Amino acid sequence: MLNTFMQSRLRGLVVLALILIILPAFLGNPFHYELVTQMAIIAATVVGLNLLVGFAGQISLGHAGFFGLGAYFTGIATGTYGWSSVPALVVGAIVVGFIAWIVGRPILRLKGHYLSMATLAVGFIIAIILNNERALTGGPDGMPVPAFEVFGWQLSAFGSYSLFGIEIEGFQAWYIFASAVLLVAVWFALNLIESPIGRALRSVHGSEVAASVVGVNTAKYKSLVFVISAIYASLMGSLYAHFQGFITPAVASFEFSILFITMVVLGGMGSTFGVILGAVVLKLLPQVLADFQELEHVMFGLILMLTMIFMPKGLLPTLTAFVSKRMRKKAGGEA
Amino acid sequence: MFKTVIRRAGKCAAVAAAGLMMMSAQAAEPIKIGSFLSVTGPASFLGDPELKTLEMYVEKINEEGGVLGRQLELIHYDDVGNASSARNFASRLIRSDQVDIIVGGSTTGATMAAVPLIEQAQVPFISLAGAVVITDPVKKWVFKTPQTDRMAAERILTDMKDRGITKFGLISGTGGFGSSGRTQTLEVAEQMGMEVVADVTYSGSDTDMTAQLTNIRNTSGVEAVLNFGFGQGPAIVTRNYAQLGMELPFYQSHGVASDSFLELAGSSADGLRLPASPLLVPDSLPDSDPQKEVVQNYKAEYEARWDSKVSTFGAYAYDGLMLAVRAMEEAGSTDPEAVRNALESIQGYVGVTGVFNMSPEDHNGLDPESFRILEVQNGEWKLIN
User: 20 to 30 A Cα–Cα from A321, which one of A288, B190, B282, B338?
Assistant: First the structure.
């Protein structure tokens, strides 16, 4: 019973949940909570991007554009027009999903990496609009975003709340919220991968010709997953904006898109838990290297290069393969 | 029996000594000054001199005995000009390092990203960034040392008016500095009853602005041209301006008030005017100017220590640090509320950037006159007024 459960696809999810529950014991101060909360939000974005990169074999170089659009939609709708957070988040995601569909639909009929070029352009266009529409977005200097709010109840990183009779601080509440969001994001992704859609996607990744021969509508599935990953980015962008309380067009920048892709490549394309690890490592890097900031880009490039050369499958898949090989060797030696 | 008493007394003495040592250790615990600056990356021309200034004056203050009998400790991070790292480092300074005051934020984006957090955490913060939004509306815990871009616009437009100009063309960069400057210029022009007859922009990557300038030249009624921007753009505008043989009075903003701009623009800069810190012309200041000594000292000390040219941006950090020190001395403690109140009531502090008179309504404390209008003559700055 336990065995079948452990074999199921929920195993990883349970491990992740346990890590998220134990983690606060190691978090020394509010700053650590903040960092982990950001990691969770970014990780959820990357889980969405991984659906596209790891399972449909398409690369998006403009995901920060969708992330930024979600962030700004939330910022403008809640800040300037006084919307509630949830409708802003949902409408933002629908708008972004629609944009992704418009962009993806014609391009994904083509074979090859045309989507990269198209998303690159879309990302740039979004960043330029956010920079220039000063009246709406505050221009390059950014804009403030109000706290997350549902039915008049605010979730601010600075407030304090009582949860089931236990007093918790705002940053802890945000940590719990972001952890829950990450778990839901992972759960949805895992289910999608194991669904008929997921199998169709993997067949597209394996061989597009073979997939279409067995009757998979490749263009349809590719654009579907592209839209889903864009919606992931938009939703997480909205939450990120609420959490940060202030956004600048840097959230939609090309550098940020590249960071997302690097997280996927580093963690392991196609490995949902791997990309979370990738997000954690790359989000931690600037803090670890705080005293040698000038080395950050060197380290960044070095990590990407070494991963490509020595671990083309990414961090987590390589590690798992290594560990299971050792285990098998040991078992073989004993027998 | 007697031995036990002695032993006990010994123990007591040891405990007392340990306690005393701990107390003195507490008294000698350094005052932590936190800073996040854009030391590398596209805004490094701001962050680099700022960090150098902070480092050298913290050293100097410590040699002279520190503040309130305690040494200063500078904790700084590099935000590479990225607003979200700036926010994260501000959070680290407040929550992990638990600093007493923050002096930093090279760019407006970095400053504004950290402001919500700082306001909530209630730590005094002195920003080194330019835009008017930082202190208008006034935020309880946020102060800043550079003049606002609004003051620059006021200063330039006043100088134009003195020369009898009422209609001018505006060319601005689309970056943060340029676009904020453009907004302020348009507002100030309306208030002063002047007319912006042409309003064109260029982006940071443009390499030729002849088209925009031709557009301005062909606008009827234009009497002068103002360029608001920083980085490479204004140097290109200046060269194009000379190449087109435009004879109208030409103004630049304080964003290019540095010697490196003169090198970039070369002889085509001759005749242009701009508002600038007195730091560019320390020796031409009249002896009656209260800032003369401060400015000359800062320039001499900085250049002696770092063997590189002093920059206006470093001076913002100088003023920020000195204001922080003065506020802590006046407050007599590092209690955040007391330091903040002291900062708010600083009057007549003579800095390199200007003379600061803070008030609850004004967390910048400078007036437009702290800018000096300079004109470039034969490749050198000349003080006009």
Answer: A288
A147 contacts chain B (CB < 8 A)? no
- In chain A, the percentage of residues whose pLDDT exceeds 70 is 92
Please, what are the domains in chain B? 31-148+291-370 (3.40.50.2300), 150-283+372-383 (3.40.50.2300)
pLDDT confidence of residue A89: 93
Place of tokens 């946020």: B142
Q: How far apart are CA A141 and CA A144, in angstroms?
A: 10
Task: Flag whether pLDDT at A308 surpasses 90.
Answer: no
Q: What is the CATH number of domain A2-288+295-334?
A: 1.10.3470
CA dist B136 and B292 (Å) reads 29
Q: B120, B133, B186, B202: best mutation site toward chain A, by most A Cβ within 10 Å?
A: B120
* Pairwise CA distance, residues B304 & B310, whole Å: 10
Residue B318, pLDDT score = 94
B60's tokens:
């100097």
Sorting pLDDT into bands at 50, 70 and 90, what band is B255? confident
Contacts of B131 in chain A (CB under 8 A): 141
Q: Which residues of A touch B84 (CB under 8 A)?
A: 244, 248, 250-251
Of residues A131, A245, A287, nearest to B117 (C-beta) = A245
- Report residue B134 as tokens: 């930082």
| H-helix or E-strand spanning residue A63 | helix A63-74
Measured distance CA(B33)–CA(A8) in Å, rounded: 53
The predicted pLDDT at position B21 comes to 47
CA distance A314 to chain B (A): 26
Non-local (6+) Cβ contacts of B228 within 8 A are: B149, B153, B170, B171, B172, B173, B177, B178, B181, B182, B185, B253, B255
pLDDT band of residue A279 (cuts 50, 70, 90) is very high
| Inter-chain CB pairs, A–B, below 8 Å | 86
Would you say B108 and B134 are in contact if contact means Cβ atoms under 8 Å apart?
A: yes
pTM above 0.95, yes or no: no
User: Among the residues of B108-265, which ranges form H helices?
Assistant: 108-121, 149-162, 176-191, 210-217, 233-243, 259-265
CA distances from B71 to B28, B226, B261, B297 (A): 7, 46, 38, 23
pLDDT score, position B2: 52
Contact A236, A48 (CB under 8 A): yes
Nearest to A293 by CA among B77, B47, B89, B46: B77
Percent of chain A with pLDDT over 90: 33
Distance between CA atoms of residues B124 and B105, nearest Å: 13
- Provide the residue ranges of all domains of chain A, joining segments of one domain with +: 2-288+295-334
Cα–Cα distance measured from residue B151 to residue B145, given in angstroms and rounded to the nearest whole number: 13
Dihedral sign for Cα B360, B364, B368, B369, please: positive
Chain segment B190-224, per-residue pLDDT in tens: 999 999 999 999 987 788 999 999 999 998 889 99
Of the candidates B77, B109, B116, the beta carbon closest to that of A245 is on B116
Q: What is the pLDDT of residues A291-302, one digit of tens each?
A: 776 777 788 788
